[in-house]
Amino acid sequence: MKKMITGGLIATASDLYEADILIENGKIVQIGKNLSADGAEIVDAAGKYVFPGGIDPHTHLDMPFNNTVTDDDWKSGTIAAAFGGTTTILDFCLTAGEEKLAPAVEKWHEKANGNSVIDYGFHLMITDLTPETEAELPLLLEREGITSIKVFMAYAKEFQASDRTLFKAFKIAKDMDAVVMVHCENGSVIDELVEEARQAGQTAPIYHALTRPAEVEGEATKRAIELAHIAGAKLYVVHVTCKEALDEIINAREKGYDVYGETCPPYLTLDQSALAQPGFEGAKYVWSPPLRPKYHQEHLWNALKAKQLQTIGSDQCSFSFNGKKRLGINDFSKIPNGGPFIEDRFSILYSEGVAKGRISIHDFVDMISTSAAKIFGLYPQKGTIAIGSDADIVIFDPAVKREISADTHHMNVDYNPYEGWEVTGEPISVLVRGEYVIKNRQFVGALGSGRYIRRAVQPATAEQINV
Q: Global pTM?
C-alpha cells in the first residue's frame, strides 16, 4: 500500500528540510511539498524528525561464545533493534579453523530466515586460511554479496587468527575491493596477563579491564594498520575504545591510509569504574575491549565530530546477569563477554550527542546510518532518504524523555547497562521498505519479513564516503 509521510523534518547526513515523502512498493518515489496523496495512507510526522533507518554494522545474534550462546536470537534481537530505530543489521558468520566457509554462511541464513523482522546482511569471520579456504573465500564473497571479512586478533583460545592469516585476508580483500574488519587486541599478551591475575587470586570483574589494558589495543591497532597498508587493503577497526588505538587510526588516516573506525555507545558514556562495583555487579559491564577510564570518552567524542571515526555499532552480544554471566562468579575470565545495546544505540547517540551539542544532526545520521551503508556496500539502497532508496524510515520524537530500564526494553536479558538513564528522543514509528514494524511504539511487524541484502562487491571509496 502507498504511504505518504507528511509534516516531518527530514534529516539526512547532508540536508535538513520539510517535505512530504511518497512511498510505493517499498521504495521512496517522490519527495516534495504538497504531493498528491491519492490512495495513500497518511503518516503524520508533524513535530518529528524523519530519519533514514539506522544501520547497525556490528551485531552478534544467536552466537556461540565462551561455552554458551547469546541470549538474544534473531527474533528478540531484531524486534529490539526495530524498537530502537534500526532497520538493517550486519551480523557475523562464525567459522572454525580449517573448516570450509560456505556451511557457516548457510548456518547464519538458517538462523535469520523466518525470524528477522528487519533487513540484514553478513560479515564472514575467518580464523585460518588453508589453500582450500583461501580459494573458496573470494568465490563465496561474490556469490553471497558479502563485502566484509572479520578477523580477531584477540580471544586466543576461541577466535584469534595468526598475523599470517590476517595478512592473507587483507590480500584477498584487496583483490575483491572488500573491507577487513579487525578486533584489535593482542590476545596472546592478554592471556598471559589473565593467567597472572588468576594465579594471584584476582578474580573479581574489575580484573577483566585491568588485564586488557589500552596499550594492547593500541599495539594491535598499529599492527593491523601496517599489515593492511602493506597489502593495500581497506581496514575497518571495530569497537575503538581508547586514545591509544584512536591515535594510530588518526595517524594512518593523515597518511592517506584506507582506515575506518567504529566505536560503540558504552565507550562514549560508561567507564571502567562500573566494573569495580561491589560483589558481582561489575559482571554486567564485562565485554571486550573493556570499558576504559573516563578521560578516553572526550577523545572519542572529538574523533567522531572530526570524522576520524565513522560509525557507531552496538556490538550487541547479550548474556543475562542472573543466567549466563554467572558462569564467571568465581573467575572473571569465565564471564561471557558482551552486553545488550542493539535497542538503545540510536537513542543514546542522539541524546548524548545531538541533544547535548556534541555532534550535529547531520553527524548523527551519518554515524548511525549513512557511513555504514557506504563502507559496506548498501548505499544508496540504504542509509539515506532519496528517490529510489528503500523506504526505511524512522519517525523520531526529539522532545520525548524516557527512562531506560530492563523492565521496559525488548531485549531478552534481565538487565540494562543504562538502567535508570534518562534519554532525550525516541523512535515512534519505524518502517522497513515502506511497511510498519513499529507503529506508535507498538510492534506490528511479522517474523520473517526481514530480507537478506546482497551488497555491492565494490563498496564506496573513501572519497565517496568523504570521511
A: 0.96
What is d(CA 390, CA 383) in angstroms, rounded to the nearest whole number? Answer: 9
Pairing of strands 234-237, 179-183: parallel
Residue whose entry in the numeric block shows the C-alpha cell 526495530: 82
By the 8 A CB rule, do 371 and 359 touch?
Answer: no
- 466 CB-near residues (< 8 Å, 6+ apart): none
Q: Are strands 393-403 and 49-52 parallel, antiparallel or unpaired?
A: antiparallel
User: Cell match 572530526: residue?
Assistant: 306
Is the pLDDT at 464 greater than 70, yes or no?
A: no
Cell representation of residue 422: 534518562
Residue at grid coordinates 547479550: 318
Given a cut of 90, whether residue 312 has pLDDT beyond it is yes
Place of cell 571509496: 461
Strand partners, 129: none
For residue 109, give the C-alpha cell: 541464513
Q: How crowded is the C-beta side of 131, counted as CA atoms within 13 Å?
A: 0
Vertex 141, ends 139 and 142: CA angle to 5°? 65
- Read off the pLDDT band of 157 (50, 70, 90): confident
Strand partners, 429: 395
| Angle, CA 392 vertex, CA 387 and CA 398 arms, to 5° | 105
Hey, what amino acid is at 49? Y
SS3 269: helix
- Please tell me the distance from the alpha carbon of residue 273 to that of residue 294, in angstroms, as a whole number: 8
- The residue-averaged pLDDT of 292-301 equals 98
Rounded distance between C-alpha atoms, residue 64 and residue 294, angstroms = 31
Q: How far apart are CA 464 and CA 438, in angstroms?
A: 32
For residue 397, give the 3-state DSSP assignment: strand
